[in-house]
Amino acid sequence: MSKGERTKTKSQSAREKIKAQQAEQRAREKRRKTITYVTAGAVAVAAVGLGWWYAASISRSEEATGALAPVTVQADGTAVMAKAGVTAPVVDIYEDFQCPACKELERVSGQTFKNLAAEGKAKVVFHPITIFSQEPTKSNSVRAGNAARCVADGKQWLAFHDLLFANQPSETEEGFKVDQLQQWGKEAGVSSPGFDQCVASNKNAQAHLAYSKKISDEQKLDHTPTVKLNGTEIDNQVLFSPSQLRDEITGAAK
Amino acid sequence: MTTVARLVLGGVLIAAGALKIGNPADSVVAVKAYQLLPESIAVAVGYALPILEIVVGVLLVVGLLTRVAAVIAALLMFAFVFGIGWAWAKGLRIDCGCFGGGGQLGAGQEPTYLLDILRDFGLVLLGAWVARFPPGRFALDGALGLGGDTHDEDEGDD
Questions:
Q1: A54 shares a domain with A75
Q2: Over 60: is that where the pLDDT of A52 sits?
Q3: Which InterPro entries does this entry report, sorted A to Z (chain A) (predicted)?
Q4: B3 CB near a chain A CB, below 8 Å?
């Protein structure tokens, strides 16, 4: 082996060694990057998951606890849900059967109102009104409002009320049609004589609109749902968080 | 440029998320209003959207996982463009406003679909830019050496 060849081999092996070292370094670097990347990603995903869980948990609805408090339909079209003798605190719910936010309120907090009334901790008053002034939402809302006024029995009224929200139509098309309303009436067990006829003739429409206007002016309502506790509006944030809502209402009872 | 895009896009996302995060019901109703998703999915999306916006926004602003965050942000914005376009095509009057504000849109008032679409589409482009040339200056990705291989060439971009 000549001297030159030896040097060449030597430097070759040295070069290979360096190469190997570099490769290892690169691999280590890559591992470190991967770990950092995955960690950051995991933290981000966890944060999203946590936020989602939190949002879902503060809007978790209460479970039905059993029998409902008695419901009485009033002459003015409102319905009172309260145990006998419970007169305070008063929770007034102003809602429009066609309003999506009202549907959401019923979905999230509807059960809380029912439970509180059943526990004798509140007197809940439903005020179905029409807040829409444009078509087709206005007529949809009025037809639904009329139909609710065709129900005389409180228990049936509440079941019908729940069905209306559950089946709320889109805001862009004609909905709450006469035959649908009659069908839901059947499902809710409505036994009032002439219910179908009452729904078809829309005979309470004027009374419903007049009440909507009167109560909106009196209570200065500019949006639905509006829920008042002893006359003071409850914050949306509280309204849509069943546990906070319960605290606020039971707090007012003391 | 990347840095500016990151800050703008991230800032918009954080603001949008922060406005909604206090009241999940609000965003659930908003998602449902588009009538794009089935009820149960709309609820889940409504709960997840605000926090997702904030997290992605923060990642963009600090420049961590820039490329991934930018892709998600661009997809989000694209989804909004699609949603608004859908609402427009179907003639939905999204700003139902029965929540909070003063009732629904007035008689002469039209939803500003075109403006919204242009704005969101611009944000899609910003997202795409950031995804193409991450991470820009003042980014944690750079500091942590997570910039990816295009890192060096892009230094001069902004």
A1: no
A2: yes
A3: Thioredoxin-like_fold, Thioredoxin-like_sf
A4: no
Instruction: Examine the domain organization and report whether A125 and A171 are in the same domain.
Output: yes
Is the Cβ of B108 closer than 8 Å to some Cβ of chain A? Answer: no
Pairing of strands A123-128, A90-95: parallel
Contact A52, A60 (CB under 8 A): no
Size of interface A-B (CB pairs under 8 A): 113
CB contact under 8 A, B25 and A236: yes
In this structure, what token pair is assigned to residue B116?
A: 């919204």
- In sequence order, which ranges of chain B are alpha helices (DSSP H)? 2-21, 24-33, 39-62, 66-90, 113-132, 140-143
Cβ <8 Å between A59 and B93: no
Nearest to B103 among A37, A41, A131 (CB): A131
**pTM for the model:** 0.76
Same domain, A14 and A38: yes
Please report the pLDDT score of residue B46 as a whole number: 84
Q: Which domain holds residue A3?
A: 1-58
Confidence of residue A12 (pLDDT cuts 50, 70, 90): confident
CA of B76: how far to CAs of A65, A104, A203, B104, in Å? 40, 24, 48, 26
Q: Note the pLDDT tens digit of each residue in B61-84.
A: 888 888 888 888 888 888 888 888
Given CB atoms, is A57 within the 8 Å cutoff of chain B? no
Task: Report yes or no on A171 lying in a domain.
Answer: yes
- Split at pLDDT 50, 70, 90, the class of A176 is very high
